[in-house]
UniProtKB/TrEMBL annotation:
The active site is at D51 (nucleophile). The lineage of its organism: Bacteria, Pseudomonadati, Bacteroidota, Flavobacteriia, Flavobacteriales. This is tRNA pseudouridine synthase A. Substrate binds at Y108. Formation of pseudouridine at positions 38, 39 and 40 in the anticodon stem and loop of transfer RNAs. Belongs to the tRNA pseudouridine synthase TruA family. The keyword Hydrolase does not apply. Signal peptide: none annotated.
Length: 244
């Protein structure tokens, strides 16, 4: 039987979601907890791979087991997991439903602090030394919808079979002294959101014009885009499914 887990985590202490040699990951902690409680080896498949230091407010993974799950499994698992990982619910799905391949969209938020804020040092990009023009950044957002090939924002030397992504939403809003970028698409490339944010900040600070974004995208070269924004300002906030 297949089960979905909805959970969240602060990525500060992890080398991303996915298990890797000689580095602590969210997946490793999740599987360790499930395996211990269910007393069998549990392997999970996540909705995506967040990079080192990136956070997730809402993400899903699936796992298989023949055991009947206890009603208080969520409580037990949360008691076992570190304080920076929290499980919200565990629920049954069809046996062939896949956390990664059946996702219809993913939504990220990126946070930028416009003032020096000691309470968000590890949760938002502190960009207070130079003002940012949110209107220019939103003008650039409109240009993103004209394209589907985002090679210029893809991490080099990855195993992507395609760099085609369908953009659903891209918008900057200001909430007091904080800028929040919300971006949603059917899929994202490794490092894509951070590369877009880095380029948007160059636009907002006047280094390049919004129209220059077309040249960046059409160049299809990572070196044409801006430097990647820091990981700690990025949050995966939603993954969409048609559970039926």
């Amino acid at each position: 039987m297949r089960y979905f887990i909805e959970f969240s985590y602060n990525g500060k202490n992890y080398f991303g979601y996915q298990i890797q040699p000689n580095a602590i990951s969210v997946q490793e902690e999740l599987e360790k907890g499930l395996s211990t409680i269910l007393r069998e080896e549990i392997k999970t498949t996540g909705a995506g791979r967040t990079d080192t230091g990136v956070h997730a407010k809402k993400i899903f993974a699936h796992f298989d087991t023949e055991k009947k799950l206890e009603e208080d499994l969520v409580r037990k698992l949360n008691s076992f997991l570190p304080s920076d990982i929290s499980v919200k619910r565990i629920f049954r799905v069809q046996d062939d439903f896949h956390a990664r391949f059946d996702a219809t969209y993913r939504t990220y938020e990126y946070y930028i602090s416009l003032e020096k804020n000691p309470f968000t040092q590890e949760l938002a990009w502190q960009h207070w030394r130079k003002p940012l023009d949110i209107h220019k950044m939103n003008d650039a957002c409109k240009i993103l919808f004209e394209y589907e090939d985002f090679t210029s924002f893809a991490k080099l030397h990855t195993d992507n079979k395609t760099n085609i992504c369908k953009m659903y939403k891209a918008e900057w809003i200001q909430n007091g002294s904080e800028l929040i970028f919300t971006v949603s698409a059917n899929r994202f490339l490794r490092n894509m959101v951070r590369a877009i944010v880095g380029t948007m900040v160059e636009i907002g600070s006047g280094k390049i014009d919004p129209e220059d974004l077309r040249k960046v995208i059409e160049n299809k070269n990572r070196n044409a885009a801006g430097t990647s924004a820091p990981a700690h300002g990025l949050y995966l906030v939603d993954v969409g499914y048609e559970f039926g």
